[in-house]
Amino acid sequence: MIDRRLFLLAAPVALAGCTTTGTSNPRLSALPPTLDPQYVKMYAAINDEPFPVPAVDISQIDPRFLRQEVAYSTREQPGTIVVDPNERFAYLVLANGRALRYGVGVGKQEGFNFRGAGTIARKAKWPHWTPTPDMIRREPDRYGPYASGMPGGEGNPLGPRALYIYKDGRDTLYRLHGTVEPWTIGTMVSSGCIRFINQDIIDLYGRVPVDTKVVVLPATGAAVS
């Protein structure tokens, strides 16, 4: 059961697309002249993990992509995760027309994105990462050295948590996961997975159980205005 009190505390506020690009976020003109201390606290360093989770420089991220409770109209039941690649948001649906909204990074090409309904069939802390054969084929120099995988830990592109999307009982190879490049949140940057700020994926991981429904809306590839 979702604890509404936790959401109120947050209110002010394929193994596919799991790679980094070094792209900076171009939409920073909306940043306020001073940073909200509640957001600074929300994205502070986490010191009780097996590996470091650094504080996020939120001045590098458009404020709309920071975690916050919002009004949200959907036919999906509370507890469902809805990902909108066009707007670069993921929603955890609440009751009474509300949702907890997270900014995300999505596939840099429309064909890289999973779409439709699936289920979180597995959750992992500090997950192991392996590039897919397609990723290695496209960029052998970049991904070939990791063909046997990378253990979880600092520098792993999946970050501190991963939620694994299955469909009809089969792994889709798409994940909801963290990132080593928080400034890319709000952009089309990955090879298809949905990346979150590390503090946000830790937050979402703690709120949803295995068998949670995930709906990924169709992506048009349009830029966020």
From TrEMBL:
Residues 1-16 form the signal peptide. It comes from the Bacteria. Residues 79-217 form the L,D-TPase catalytic domain. Keywords: Cell shape, Cell wall biogenesis/degradation, Glycosyltransferase, Hydrolase, Peptidoglycan synthesis, Signal, Transferase. One of its GO terms (molecular function) is peptidoglycan L,D-transpeptidase activity. GO terms for cellular component: extracellular region. PANTHER family: L,D-TRANSPEPTIDASE (PTHR30582), L,D-TRANSPEPTIDASE ERFK_SRFK-RELATED (PTHR30582:SF24). This is L,D-transpeptidase. It comes from Ancylobacter mangrovi.
